[in-house]
Automatic annotation (TrEMBL):
Keywords per UniProt: Cobalt, Isomerase, Metal-binding
Name the record gives this protein: Methylmalonyl-CoA epimerase, mitochondrial
NCBIfam families the UniProt entry points to: metmalonyl_epim
Enzyme class: isomerase
Record-listed E.C. numbers: 5.1.99.1
Gene Ontology CC, one term: mitochondrion
Catalytic activity line of the entry: (R)-methylmalonyl-CoA = (S)-methylmalonyl-CoA
Gene Ontology MF annotations: metal ion binding; methylmalonyl-CoA epimerase activity
Name of the encoding gene: Mcee
Organism taxonomic ancestry: Eukaryota, Metazoa, Chordata, Craniata, Vertebrata
Length: 163
């Protein structure tokens, strides 16, 4: 009958293992922490600041120049994380080239905290994840940061920041 045909054609349902998810993750000498910020490249920094401050009512920092990174930064506080608004500082800024390809701006990178950036670098290199600098640079929060190649991170530029 119909019931026996349904039983034959019904797909097999697989259940997840009863093991905790963390048992499937290899132990590391370093730990990934919380999302620190999502960075957004903007062609007009004042207009973007105004959107978050005046229209959406967020707490917005002053503009800070980071010549080593070739950017101006502004942080928008969101309670559990931040947005970082990025604008080019100079013609060789990586944000200038990003905005040439993305005229209206857009998400540039995510930043995740780590408890030991040097150990993270060593282990990631062993796992063939490319790091975009030989040594950490001091980031917008005054802490060491590195960037991971987007082609090794599913198309996302990932910044790791020492917690």
């Amino acid at each position: 009958g119909l019931l026996s045909r349904l039983q034959i054609s019904a797909p097999t349902i697989r259940t997840l293992s009863s093991k905790p998810f963390s048992q499937n993750i290899p132990s590391c000498l370093w730990k990934l922490g919380r999302l620190n910020h999502v960075a957004i490249a903007v062609p007009d920094l004042e207009k973007a600041q105004s959107l978050y401050k005046d229209v959406l009512g967020a707490q917005v920092s002053e503009t800070v120049a980071l010549p080593e990174h070739g950017v101006y930064t502004v942080f928008v506080e969101l309670g559990n994380t931040k947005l970082e608004l990025l604008h080019p500082l100079g013609e060789k800024s990586p944000i200038a080239s990003f905005l040439q390809k993305n005229k209206t701006g857009g998400m540039h990178h995510i930043c995740i905290e780590v408890d030991d950036i040097k150990a993270a670098m060593t282990e990631l290199k062993k796992k063939k994840i490319r790091i975009l600098s030989e040594e950490p640079k001091i980031g917008a929060h005054g802490k060491p940061v590195i960037f991971l190649h987007p082609k090794d991170c599913h198309g996302v530029l990932v910044e790791l920041e020492q917690a």
